[in-house]
Task: inverse folding
């Protein structure tokens, strides 16, 4: 059954303030998307592209696509690693995460987000400073600076003005329907990230600035809600080749209740992983992926909606492909 765009716009408008920042199901494998301080954590150049489709069954349902690059500024020789050589079930060490030394990192992101008649294109650059707290722990400080292009496509929406008639003039409504222009706003984010080769804890904030936009003939202040996110996880050995990573992602903004997402990830020999997440009052997520070779990675997840949207939607997909240079 074909869903009307007006339904999708209704849900999008109801959550516009609460979800100005895109949501990602595979955050555990792509933490740079939720925290600028995670740029350069891995000791190689990470180039990743991904796409996310939500609310399958709606016309013009939310879609997100992204490309990011993250790299430490280091020429440290890499140690070849064969996970099959592990002979101990002690603490799991990730050989691609190096701690105990000062390092700098750069990153960049391009994220395209659309829902109904609304479009947003964001490009940002990131700098992160990784400070050694000890031989096994680093603390990273990261900041991002970006520009967002936001637009409304009136021809993609169905609008209804109940107050009609020749004697009635509604300038706000007329400007809304007539407006198809785009507005540019600045985005600033910051984060902290404490990590070792078998655990992490991070906090970040996004949309820290206000800006001015012109809608129709009226200029107004664009004051996006700041979004705060926290992540934590630990890698636990289950056998010589199998590890378990329980993790949590907490998200908060003034415009919405606290969101908690709990995840578990099983990883086999550092190349094959499967997992699941529960996002309170939103979705249950199943996901899997693998490192196709030393250079390429792949991930897929499916969201099973458990919110009111489940009556109209069959879920959502997220697909991630990555290139690991210098691994």
Result:
């Amino acid at each position: 059954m074909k869903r009307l765009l007006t339904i999708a716009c209704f849900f999008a408008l109801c959550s516009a303030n609460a979800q100005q920042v895109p949501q990602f199901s595979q955050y555990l494998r792509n933490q740079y998307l939720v925290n600028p301080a995670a740029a350069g954590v891995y000791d190689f150049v990470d180039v990743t592209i991904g796409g996310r489709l939500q609310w399958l069954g709606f016309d013009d349902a939310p879609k997100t696509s992204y490309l990011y690059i993250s790299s430490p500024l280091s020429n440290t020789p890499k140690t070849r690693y064969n996970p099959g050589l592990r002979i101990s079930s002690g603490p799991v060490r990730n050989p691609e995460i190096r701690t105990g030394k000062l390092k700098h990192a750069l990153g960049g992101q391009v994220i395209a987000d659309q829902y109904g008649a609304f479009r947003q294109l964001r490009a940002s650059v990131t700098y992160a400073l990784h400070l050694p707290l000890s031989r096994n722990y680093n603390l990273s400080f990261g900041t991002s600076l970006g520009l967002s292009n936001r637009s409304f496509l009136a021809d993609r929406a169905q609008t209804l003005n109940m107050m009609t008639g020749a004697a009635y003039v509604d300038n706000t409504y007329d400007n809304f329907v007539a407006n198809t222009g785009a507005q540019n706003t600045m985005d600033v984010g910051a984060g902290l990230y404490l990590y070792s080769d078998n655990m992490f804890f991070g906090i970040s904030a996004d949309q820290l600035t206000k800006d001015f936009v012109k809608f129709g003939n009226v200029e107004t202040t664009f004051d996006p809600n700041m979004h705060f996110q926290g992540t934590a996880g630990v890698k636990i050995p289950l056998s010589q080749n199998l590890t378990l990573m329980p993790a949590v992602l907490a998200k908060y903004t003034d415009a919405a209740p606290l969101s908690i997402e709990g995840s578990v990830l099983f990883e086999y020999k550092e190349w094959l992983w499967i997992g699941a997440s529960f996002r309170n009052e939103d979705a249950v997520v199943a996901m899997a992926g693998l490192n196709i070779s030393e250079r390429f990675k792949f991930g897929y997840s499916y969201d099973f909606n458990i919110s009111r949207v489940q009556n109209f939607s069959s879920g959502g997909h997220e697909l991630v492909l990555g290139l690991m240079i210098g691994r």
Q: What stands out?
A: Residues 63 and 246 are 28 Å apart (CA to CA). The longest strand covers residues 118-132. Residues 5-224+296-325 form one domain.
